[in-house]
TrEMBL record:
Keyword Isomerase: no
Highest taxon of source: Bacteria
Annotated TM spans: none
Keywords assigned: Transferase
Entries under PANTHER family matching the protein: STEROL 3-BETA-GLUCOSYLTRANSFERASE (PTHR48050), STEROL 3-BETA-GLUCOSYLTRANSFERASE UGT80A2 (PTHR48050:SF13)
Residue span(s) of domain Glycosyltransferase family 28 N-terminal: 3-64
CDD domains named among the record's database cross-references: GT1_Gtf-like
InterPro entries the UniProt entry points to: EryCIII-like_C, Glycosyltransferase_28, GlycoTrans_28_N, UDP_glucos_trans
Pfam family, one: Glyco_transf_28
Protein name (Swiss-Prot/TrEMBL): Glycosyltransferase
Occurrences of domain Erythromycin biosynthesis protein CIII-like C-terminal (ranges): 285-397
């Protein structure tokens, strides 16, 4: 049986599915990962077939006004839809769809008769427990949160409207709008497995049947992999350092952010590792080291703390390692995850990206490293996450769905 996992977005929207795909492959399934060109090495490195989705994520991860972000998202989705069916349908027996690909994948599933299952990284279904994750707003009360959640889905459907019209025409399907297809899926209790930990977000009691929280999927990494020798030497040369990185955020701001990071580390009296990322962070010195991509699973357990943008994947990786965080959210769902980390005591209050200064970062670093309650909360969450068989839950769902 061939399983197709389809996802698109930044690295954090793709990497968790490499670990999930590897587990499914080890269970005997033929697994392909459909995503954009930039992440072909991730797919192949996990032993998965790569299928190209026709979209370009470069330059679309920066923060901006709501209208600008909506336009950029609509352009990305329209591009994504152009060859989506060709990429995911050929020879596929089961579709696993992310939150970004499901509004397109539903139509492919209808046209081909292939069963599908949602595998989402963010809680998208409306709930009274919290407002929609993409708004970054405070709670509006249970009724207000649910209303805002429905509004967020309507805005999502507007982004997908043109791509859906074109896709259904290409698939020779009768016209059906994006909102009507979503309502059809909701009435059918289309199953979605959410890939985040209940340590961060317990399953809302007002969610409908078929929506489950299974735990965070860990990105694949080669078990024989080792950290670079220079990084090993740095880790062994003194007290546990702090990692500072912004993932795929903040492109073009490397010089400013590097200066802030180095000044903050020295003000707090800490050693640091800068992860270059899209921002291009870089600095040299006896107390600071610059690295590129390294497996979080190997590095994070050896740190005193992690400064990050609060993407879903990095937030989960820090917790899994039992390491506290200082969060600097930039956009989209990042303020939500930053708030959740702070709520369970595993992070300081978030520093909004636009308000980041060396002084604020130094104060937060001093607090998170020296007040042991943060590390204790992170360790408690790590123990909880170790009990969640996230990939195993998906494997069981796949077997139940396919017989």
């Amino acid at each position: 049986m061939r399983i197709m996992i389809a996802t698109a977005g930044s690295r954090g929207d793709v990497a968790p599915y490499t670990g999930l795909g590897a587990v499914l492959r080890s269970a005997g399934y033929d697994v392909a990962l459909a995503t954009t060109d930039a992440f072909a090495p991730l797919a192949r490195g996990a032993g998965l077939e790569f299928r190209r989705l026709p979209a370009d994520t470069r330059g679309r991860t920066a923060a901006g006004g709501r209208r600008e972000l909506m336009r950029a998202a609509a352009a990305f989705v329209t591009e994504l839809g152009e060859g989506f069916a060709d990429a995911v349908a050929d020879g596929t027996d089961l579709l696993l769809l992310s939150a970004t690909t499901a509004p397109l994948g539903w139509h492919v599933a209808e046209a081909t008769g292939v069963p599908s299952l949602g595998v989402y990284l963010q809680p998208t279904a409306p709930t009274g427990d919290f407002p929609p994750v993409v708004t970054g707003s405070r709670s509006l009360g249970r009724l207000g949160n649910r209303a805002a959640g429905r509004l967020a889905l309507r805005m999502t459907d507007r982004i997908y409207a043109q791509a859906v019209r074109r896709l259904r025409h290409r698939l020779d399907l009768a016209p059906l709008s994006a909102p009507l297809m979503r309502r059809r899926q909701e009435r059918a209790d289309w199953p979605v497995l959410y890939g985040f930990s209940t340590a961060l977000v317990p399953r809302p009691s007002d969610w409908s049947a078929g929506l489950e929280v299974v735990g965070a999927w860990e990105p694949h990494h080669d078990e024989a992999a080792r950290l670079p020798a220079e990084l090993e030497d740095f880790l062994r040369a003194g007290p546990r350092p702090v990692l500072i990185g912004f993932g795929s955020m903040a492109a073009g701001e490397g010089e400013r952010l590097s200066g802030i990071a180095v000044r903050a580390l020295r003000r707090a009296g800490l050693r640091g590792i800068l992860q270059s990322g899209s921002a291009g962070l870089a600095a040299d010195g006896d107390d600071v080291l610059t690295v590129g991509d390294v497996p979080h699973a190997l590095l994070f357990p050896r740190l005193a703390a992690v400064v990050h943008h609060a993407g879903a994947g990095t937030s989960a990786a820090a917790l899994r390692a039992g390491v506290p965080s200082v969060t600097v959210p930039v956009a989209a769902d990042q303020p939500f995850w930053a708030g959740r980390l702070a709520a369970i005591g595993a992070a300081t209050a978030a520093i909004p990206f636009g308000a980041l200064t060396a002084e604020r970062l130094a104060d937060a670093l001093g607090e998170v490293v020296r007040q042991r309650t943060y590390a204790a909360a992170a360790a408690t969450a790590a123990r909880h996450m170790a009990t969640e068989d996230a990939a195993g839950r998906v494997l069981k769902a796949v077997r139940d769905l396919t017989g």
